[in-house]
Amino acid sequence: xxxxxxxxxxxxxxxxxxxxxxxxxxxxxxxxxxxxxxxxxxxxxxxxxxxxxxxxxxxxxxxxxxxxxxxxxxxxxxxxxxxxxxxxxxxxxxxxxxxxxxxxxxxxxxxxxxxxxxxxxxxxxxxxxxxxxxxxxxxxxxxxxxxxxxxxxxxxxxxxxxxxxxxxxxxxxxxxxxxxxxxxxxxxxxxxxxxxxxxxxxxxxxxxxxxxxx
Amino acid sequence: xxxxxxxxxxxxxxxxxxxxxxxxxxxxxxxxxxxxxxxxxxxxxxxxxxxxxxxxxxxxxxxxxxxxxxxxxxxxxxxxxxxxxxxxxxxxxxxxxxxxxxxxxxxxxxxxxxxxxxxxxxxxxxxxxxxxxxxxxxxxxxxxxxxxxxxxxxxxxxxxxxxxxxxxxxxxxxxxxxxxxxxxxxxxxxxxxxxxxxxxxxxxxxxxxxxxxx
Lengths: 214, 214
Prior knowledge:
The first copy, chain A, is α/β, with parallel strands linked by helices. In chain A, 43% of the residues lie in helices and 17% in strands.
């Protein structure tokens, strides 16, 4: 039985907190107030305090949160204080975009290699990441001790590639396809559904009725 | 003052419900039970009932939800029963991936054109979507009556392009950059932060301690 993750919305917000807190550190601020964070993210201050409490850190009255300690606490809570070796499977447009996604470097996510079955791509690099043959995946994963695979193959290939990933010892799959993957219980799957964000955009747009142009 | 959207996690889950309900319709099922939906998505049945209640539809005891009516209710709630004309700004890898993202076609999102300032891209198509010069954006938006812009430019250009979009009459921006955009109050911005999903993946992976390979 997999443990259930609670406080999902809070966890999903932690990376945006980290983004703001990192900027505060770059500005050499020693403390940052929950109210400032709340304003930046259009949240209620009470929500920010609740969210940050799950990382075990508490603000000081009138001063706020110690910037360095807060960053460290969030990163440790998420496991982002250690480098995670990952592979990218599917070197298409989305894979290439993710290989070049700058935010990942802040979060300890290192994309070591990309895999594809398109011979014209094998041997090239995407945003500096080497593209290797899908057939060499098992050997590579074993040597790298990679645990995470980012899946950006066409949906029609998603399950068969997943079976190969699981056989190779991958234990976490970040699934960008629209397929519900069948995996053994020890493998974590996080499905990234871009239409969720689109749903939010539409609702917010419809909620704001004063837009004459729409 | 913008209205606050409540029930954000529920709204974010609606597209995945829609995905499952659409499959049920393709299988010619007349009803689908909340329990089946819950199993498919690893949710509690009570959560599914609560989420679907916000669309105004209620299941029948022992039968479940009427498939056709439930799809229509979700789509209407999200405003996905009408076609939304959108433009893509930034015809790079992420833009190209989004132009080809199949799920959008189910949700009434029509990407009419892409804009870029790279002369080598202007006049070409990405996944069938024509790439036009950024300088022609204002005129195009006016004629198309497009309301939504999907922003996939480099972060360094995000604010200046946003200013052009707002001046052209765009009222909703789906922001894939990591910049907090400054916009007038009538413009909706939904920021898509891919690191949120990565945070969830990491926490789930760490919560499952029995994985010897990691």
